Amino acid sequence: MIRILKNFARRMLNAIFKRRGHIKIGFYGPPNAGKTSIANKICKDWTGEEIGVVSKVPHETRHVQFKEKVDIKYKGKSLTFKIVDTPGIATKIDYEDFVELGLKKKDAKKRAKEATQGVIESIQWLEDMDAVVVVLDSTENPYTQVNITIIGNLVARKIPILIVANKTDLKKSDMKAIETAFPEYDIVGISAKEGLNFDEFYEAIFKIAKKV
Amino acid sequence: MAVKKIRGLSLQVIPFAELRVLSISERVKKILGLVLGNKIVIIHGRLRAEEEARLIEDTMAMVDHIKGFKGIELAVIEPNMKDESIFIRMKHGIAKSLVGDSSALTVIGPASIIKEIKKDPKKIELLLK
């Protein structure tokens, strides 16, 4: 009963905000796929400010961070988004992995503790999203249970999905593997670091915004 | 050089029927209880997407509170239906909607044990029950 009421309230709020052109778009994915890099590029392009810090050490984003009222223009049309950047979702977090990457034991333990909370926060924010960009690292194997679980949850909640294959500038990048793993979804290959293919990305964003 | 074995590691097979009667919280609690006892859990069937999300959430809460627990490894093995005929796929779809997806196998294990096994598979000493 509570879930039905919550869904009803969500649909009502969505309808109000949709009329105002305000769409809550979440960036989800495993750690280090480049969610914050993409969110930074979008925010920098359209507001002049970045959303968060990026790092080579996984779990740099340990709290949900967002930027309100990001007006994106594409081919004469304009839409206002709330950009929601989320911590990477993982099934395991070991502080020793951070120590191996050069962190001091105390800092590594603190990071691991915050990262576990970040994963919980990400999952809890999922049902508040109007649309989600699932960010995958195109140099990594896409057939992981975390990726499947994220997409499965979005499908179950009927939230429109766009899959982004990031890091296409790298030699190891394999777009084909992601297309084969998720053939039923729109997939756009980009490089947030090099700013590659963002025209196609913005076109795809407008396309999923229509499904909200 | 003698290899230090991972002792006491065991597999626990759970039939889907045993989980079907439980609520989401009870299912997740049961699975994590076994994983915390160093068991690799094999479920005859697969969890729903929202149950997998809940499993990850509860796992993270435990990583934060239980010393030495690093999380889980989770994998679902499903039969490849791509090359089957439409009739077989339809039959599979109907059975799936009636009794749940019992053709899949879900494997869940403690992350630290799986890490050890990945490093050196010779370390496993299974106690099959």
Q: What can you tell me about this protein's structure?
A:
The complex is a heterodimer of chains A (212) and B (129). Chain A is of the alpha/beta class and 212 residues long. Chain A has a 6-stranded mixed β-sheet with strand order 2-3-1-4-5-6, with helices on both faces. In chain A, 43% of the residues lie in helices and 20% in strands. The mean pLDDT of chain A is 92. Chain A has helices spanning 2-19, 35-47, 95-100, 105-125, 145-156, 175-181, 198-211, and strands spanning 22-28, 65-74, 77-85, 131-137, 161-166, 187-189. Chain A has a single domain, classed as 3-Layer(aba) Sandwich (Rossmann fold). In chain A, helix 6 (175-181) links the parallel strand 5 and strand 6 (187-189). Chain A is built from 7 helices and 6 strands. Chain B is an alpha/beta fold and 129 residues long. Chain B has a single domain, classed as Methyltransferase, Cobalt-precorrin-4 Transmethylase, Domain 2 (2-Layer Sandwich). Helix content of chain B is 45%, strand content 24%. Chain B is built from 5 helices and 5 strands; from the N terminus they run βααβαβαβαβ. Chain B has helices spanning 16-20, 24-36, 49-65, 86-99, 111-119; strands at residues 6-15, 39-44, 72-77, 105-110, 124-126. Chain B has a 5-stranded mixed β-sheet, sandwiched between helices. Chain B is globular, with a radius of gyration of 17 Å. The A-B interface holds A 89-94, 112-113, 116-117, 119-120, 123-124, 126, 145-146, 148-149, 152-153, 155-156 and B 48-50, 52-53, 56-57, 59-61, 63-64, 70-76, 111-112, 115.
